[in-house]
Amino acid sequence: MNAMTEITTAAPVSHTVPTSLGRLNVVEHGQGPETIVLWPSIFTDHHIYEDLIATMGTSYRFLLIDGPAHGLSEGGSDEFTMEDCATAMSEVMDYFNLEAAIIGGTSWGGITAAHLALMWPARVKALVLMNTPMQIDAARPGLKARFIATGARWALTTTTFRNGVAKSFFSDDVLAANSTYAKAFHAMLKQANPVSLAAAIRSVILRGSPLIERMTELAVPTLVIAGKQDAMYPIAIQAEAALLAPNGHFAPVGGKHISVVEHPEHVAEALTRFIASEVAE
To answer: InterPro entries attached here (predicted)?
Structure first.
């Protein structure tokens, strides 16, 4: 990873948390007065947030959730809904005795957090949607989405497929500069259970519904962070979604799909400013 700022938080602690989607790995960083709960995208785990935490230092406590079949979390062969993921996220909050927190995530994690905010708004102090698909529609999946969803079980073991995912997620210069993360990205996918990981990927791609149609229902302060070069989720749609939220904020940053890896300092700046204006008393 970039490691631009030395991590000053206490050593992270890993927890195995029982949820309705199985036992999920949750990594706890820091001891700040506000807790930020984050869920990563498909094909990634909690490591994508390391530089964000390094940049933000000891100001916040972070709980980073590996999604089912990702990182060190359990997975199964059954598919699940985004509401199921939101329930699991709330169960993680229960485990840590959190009545409410700042919640969010990247892509899949953003969808998960948005559903939690729609289902239980009182539990959400603020919502952070990083590089989140706003128009994903299981009823009309695109060709690329169908290819990824149906071929993931067999293709994950191939370098070609993993490189294709990496190039969709990250700019070439970021992959070149972050050799440690690039290796970790490949290692996680190689070590994952292909059946469970493919079930999770199908769940996200083929069981979702457009989030943009529900942005007006969000009753909490909402920050939408988008990559300016994200071909999968065009920035114009992200900006429109932010405007639809009653208390929406929009933060475009450089790079492609995983902004928190490509430009953690810009994400940290936007997130800190958003929390200061919407959460701080």
So the answer is: AB_hydrolase_1 (IPR000073), AB_hydrolase_fold (IPR029058), AB_hydrolase_sf (IPR050266), Epox_hydrolase-like (IPR000639)
Q: What is the extent of the structural domain holding 93?
A: 13-278
The single residue listed with the structure tokens 């009823």 is 139
Give residue 220's pLDDT: 97
CA dihedral 157, 17, 123, 109 (to 10 degrees): -10
The number of residues in the chain equals 281
**Can you count the helices (H) and strands (E) in the chain?**
11, 8
From residue 204, how far is each of 131, 141, 154, 178 by CA, in Å?
14, 11, 18, 27
Which range, 40-44, 78-82, 87-91, is most confident?
87-91
Dihedral (Cα; 176, 131, 47, 123), 10-degree rounding: 170
Q: How many CB atoms lie within 10 A of CB 216?
A: 10
CB-based contact 117:218 (threshold 8 Å): yes
Measured CA to CA in angstroms, residue 100 lies from 45, 96, 126, 249 at distances of 23, 11, 9, 20
The answer to whether 130 and 106 have CB atoms below 8 angstroms apart is yes
Could you give the C-alpha distances from 82 to 12, 49, 148, 172, 250, in angstroms and in order?
A: 28, 21, 18, 31, 23
Residue type, 105: G
What confidence tens digit (pLDDT) does each residue in 215-237 have?
999 999 999 999 998 888 899 99
Dist CA 115 CA 204 (whole Å): 13
Rounded Cα gap, residues 47 and 26, in angstroms: 11
Domain containing 272 — which CATH number?
Answer: 3.40.50.1820
What radius of gyration do the chain's Cα atoms show? 17
